[in-house]
Amino acid sequence: MALAERPAALRLHARPALVVAGALGAGVVLESHLSLGMVVWSLVVAAAALIPVAVAIASRRRIVTPLPLARAVAGCAAVVAVGAVRMAAWEAPTPTDIDWLARAAAADTVVGSLDVTLRGYVVEQPVRVASGVRVRIAVEWVAHAAGAGAASGMVETTLAQPRYGDDPPPSYPELELGDRVELEGRLRAPPGRRNPADFDYAAYLARLGVGATLRITDEAGVRVLGPAHSALTALVADVQSHTRRAVRTHVRGEETRAVLLALLIADRSGVDPETRDAFARTGLAHLLAVSGLHIVLVGLVLYQLLRPSLVRLGLGWRAVEIARAGVTLAILAIYGLVTGGSPSVVRAVVMAGAMVAARTLQRPADALNGLGLAAAILLAWRPTALVDIGFQLSFAAVGALVLLSPVVMGVLPDAVATRRWARAGAGMLVASLCATLGTAPVLMYHFGQVPVGGLILNVPGIPVANVALGAGLGMAATAGPAPWVADAFAAVAELAMQALLAINDAGVRWLDWSILHGYVTRPTTIVGMVAALLALAAWRAPSTRWRLLAACAGCIAAGPWAGVAAGESAPRMEAVFLDVGQGDAAVLTLPGDRHVLVDVGPRDARWDAGARTVVPHLRRQGIHRLDAVVITHPHADHFGGLEAVLLATRVRRVLVNGQPADHPMYHRALRTADSLGVPVHQAGAGDTIDLGPSVRARFLSPRSPPPAWDDPNDGSLVLRVQYGSTSILLTGDAESSAEWDLVERYGPALRSDVVKVGHHGSRTSSTEAFVDRAAARAGWAVVSVARRNRYGLPDEEPLARWAGAGARVALTSSAGAVWLRSDGSGVRRVAWTE
Questions:
Q1: What CA–CA distance (Å, rounded) separates 626 from 281?
Q2: How far apart are CA 628 and CA 655, in angstroms?
Q3: Do residues 755 and 783 make contact, with C-beta atoms less than 8 angstroms apart?
Q4: Residues 258 and 306 in one domain
Q5: Same domain, 422 and 496
Q6: Could you report the per-residue pLDDT of 87-98, keeping only the tens digit for each?
Q7: Domain harbouring 196, CATH code
Q8: Which run of H or of E encompasses 682?
Q9: What is the widest separation between alpha-carbon atoms in the chain?
């Protein structure tokens, strides 16, 4: 899309759509935080409408009147209130909404789900995931034990595959977009965050209007009642199916097929997770998402090509312009639906449509106003899009391109600016630079990293992706009527995809060092970064530039002081017991920026707690070095994530209990430690860990030589960490024999403010004598256990024993991660979910 040579960035009165979008966004934010409801905001709209009337009456006899200002203020206030009303309406479920059933099921802490039969239709193309097939259903009718009737809302449905056992997997029918279906399964409320660094899937679904999940484990629970009832839905489904068939038929490589489908119709279900992560690390992830590049190629190229064809039909100039604008907009709208209608696609379609319409009407096109129009439409349609990462990245990238590109291009030397190819190459590099700068605050807030290597890789990557996209579209258009032409297009597309994958691989290999790591979550720092970008955009206006730079410096300087005022710099000890399912993982943060990880959670063919839970938590908390990783004993639910932690974090040492283990994953992790130069030491009773002068960390068990216990759990390393007058006792899976030994040797010295309950709350641990010695009145007993596990843990008996001793019992199965903080004199719980 052509960019204005010198946009007047701060002349908002010339861009009404941008002002409206900003006001709508402000209303969405206000209602999200204040929750005043539709009635209150409707009154604000009415009050805003009365302001100009009141000002006009009060100043009717004056020569100079503030009426224009009053109209502007009242208009902005009214639009803000409209945005808030739209947000309140979005968050208010109807009486028939399926959300009510899901919430009622979640209120039952024992079952947490409800058996239902529902009817509806498929609203998005099914996607294959590790657990089965995921499909979104718009609900029309539901039946359950308490009754049946009409229903509304959407359900995220999983056609599950068995995780364990040798039974053959269910053979579910193939579902297509628009299919009317009847489903039987278990209805639940969407799962929220289980750990501070987890992706909040429930909030993500809520932003899409999905308030419930349905899990189906039997193929008999899926019945197709009929095809799509809407002609438009049927058309979209047919285009998607045709594209998939064309790719399967004409493209040979499996990896190139998957990436090409992502490029053509935003179907990334076949792209390997490692490939997605590699594209994210190189800054080329946007090439796997349908965005403005696709719309430019599909829409604007079509718009240009239609003119000569329509002229040959003998149509007049106005008829030609209207016809090609109408055809282009129709094709863009259908393509947007085919690719899923993501915020980036809607933004690109609206901006392209605005530019085409302006050209047809012979009006000047303003990119910023088009951007504002797209934002306003998205917020009016789905107000929660404002907090969608795709929305933020897309609008930040395009806004930066529009505002910053003319400034940067204006400083190019004449030798570059006057040569066509040099200017084109510099333009691509400048566009990549501006997009990277614009999206940096969003990336650092959500992901804690900015792939700077993308500045270079986008220069060859974008043209290659455009070639692949163009050839892929040609292949899809000719598949069927002219298969030999489709083969030719497919060969070009596959060659281009292989080149794109090679560029990405080269970026991973040679530019991985260029990734900037670090989360930025303080609002003042984010505002300061945005002010710096606006200062760059206003570089030609010195007074505005210096004001913005001053604001930037003030915001960034205020950040640390705000942290000091909030007590963030005070010395303290923190223990975060992560929810890693059926396993253990606890992160200890100590004064002096010392960190210890005790156990690393489980790992199997589908889940690696180290990579999926522990490492993201360490990165989110800015922990780049671990003084020690303690593996209490060599059971897979305690050491499974060790390799991922070693590869992602600098580890000073690994401490083990020395028990022999024949698990290949354990030996592989130890070999990884050896290859990285991380020493592995055997620890036992009496050994200590040097964690600074204010902290005492001592192992209490096992003795050396260890007693001849039959159960290897009893050989678990037991670690007690003391800071000030508070202490934490971590017991691994120590069972009754080890607990009796601890009671005999330490007695009342075991008493601790926080105790990690042994063996996930099993009755084989937490003996009466041990609980009596270890539990502190008003202390904490933390049980690390999965919400659903085949062992039936935790047992009620040990939980009642800890509670009876005066401890407050916290279970990761119900609360997610348990975060406790000590100032040296007391321990309190941190509400990380707020």
A1: 23
A2: 7
A3: no
A4: yes
A5: no
A6: 999 888 788 888
A7: 2.40.50
A8: strand 680-682
A9: 102
The b/e string for 732-744 (b: 16+ C-beta within 10 A; e otherwise) is bbbbbbbbebbbe
Q: What is the rounded distance in angstroms from the CA atom of residue 288 to the CA atom of residue 11?
A: 35
Q: For the chain, what is the mean pLDDT?
A: 88
3-class SS letters over 259-273: HHHHHHHCCCCCCCH
* Whole-angstrom distance, CA of residue 350 vs CA of residue 379: 13
H or E element: which one contains 373? helix 367-381
Q: Are 666 and 633 in contact (CB under 8 A)?
A: no
Q: Judge if 382 and 287 occupy the same domain.
A: yes
315 and 273, same structural domain?
Answer: yes
Q: How far apart are CA 364 and CA 321, in angstroms?
A: 16
User: What is the bridge-based pairing of β-strands 695-701 and 680-682?
Assistant: unpaired
3-state secondary structure 116-167: EEEEEEECCCCEEECCEEEEEEEEEEEEECCEEEECECEEEEEEECCCCCCC
Task: Look at the block and give the residue holding tokens 């064809």.
Answer: 309
Closest-CA residue to 106 (of 14, 197, 187): 187
pTM: 0.87
Whether residues 437 and 508 share a domain: the answer is no
Q: How far apart are CA 360 and CA 833, in angstroms?
A: 51
d(CA 602, CA 596): 18
Q: Does residue 834 fall inside a structural domain? A: no
- Rg over alpha carbons for the chain, rounded to the nearest Å, is 30
Quickly count helices (H) and strands (E) in the chain. Answer: 29, 27
Count of domains for the chain: 6
- CA separation, residue 654 to residues 185, 595, 634, 676, 682 (Å): 45, 13, 13, 12, 9
**pLDDT: is 267 or 289 the higher one?**
267
Determine the structural domain holding residue 175 and report its residue range.
98-229
In a domain, 378, yes or no: yes
Q: How far is CA 388 from CA 196, 205, 285, 311, 379, in A?
A: 18, 11, 16, 43, 11
Which helix (DSSP H) or strand (DSSP E) does residue 423 occupy? helix 420-446
Q: Which amino acid is at 253?
A: G
What SS3 class is residue 575?
strand
Cβ 450 vs Cβ 411: under 8 Å: no
CATH number at 716 reads 3.60.15.10
Assess whether 255 and 137 both reside in one domain.
no
Within a domain: 6: no
SS3 category, 697: strand
> CA–CA separation, 729 vs 473, rounded Å?
62
Any domain includes 393: yes
Q: Is 599 in contact with 630 (CB distance < 8 Å)?
A: yes
One domain for residues 299 and 334? yes
Tell me the mean pLDDT in the region 488-500: 94
The domain boundary residue, chosen from 229, 257, 274: 229
Over residues 735-764, mean pLDDT? 94
Per-residue tokens: 343? 């915020």
The tens digit of pLDDT for each residue in 311-356 reads 777 777 788 888 888 888 888 888 888 888 888 888 888 888 888 8
- What is the C-alpha separation between 467 and 398, in angstroms, rounded? 22
Report whether 475 contacts 261 (CB < 8 A): no
Amino acid letter, 601: G
* CA dist., res. 306 & res. 360, Å (int): 14
pLDDT tops 80 at residue 706: no
Average pLDDT for 808-834? 91
Is 382 found in the same domain as 471? Answer: yes
Question: C-alpha angle 430/295/424, rounded to 5°?
Answer: 30
Asked whether the beta carbons of 563 and 711 are under 8 A apart, the reply is no
